[in-house]
Amino acid sequence: MFVTEPLTLExxxxxxxxxFIAGFFCLPxxxxxxxxxxxxxxxxxxxxxxxxxxxxxxxxxxxxxxxVWYAVLYTMHPDSTLWVIRPHGDGRQQGYFAEAVYSV
Length: 104
Hints:
It is built from four helices and no strands. It is 59% helix and 0% strand. The longest helix has 30 residues, at 46-75. It is an all-alpha fold and 104 residues long. It has a domain at 9-76. The termini are far apart.
């Protein structure tokens, strides 16, 4: 942890809050670090319990959304109208904006 003083309850609440906020600016793995660090202290303070609970939820959500995104893109047929420029073209790609790129 990034503290230089002994870990009191007030210090733990402050560090848990910093880790929670850092998860929004850095990586969602900071939320996982928050859960791993303060999970055993969640019974000692309602504040720490709140940060652990929402850090766990946001970490799972942040890891779940890219998996769903990749699964949708992987299973979507190349001829779907959802593609702006379709993959797997025969040289020139067909799509809504392809005319601006290729002088068709």
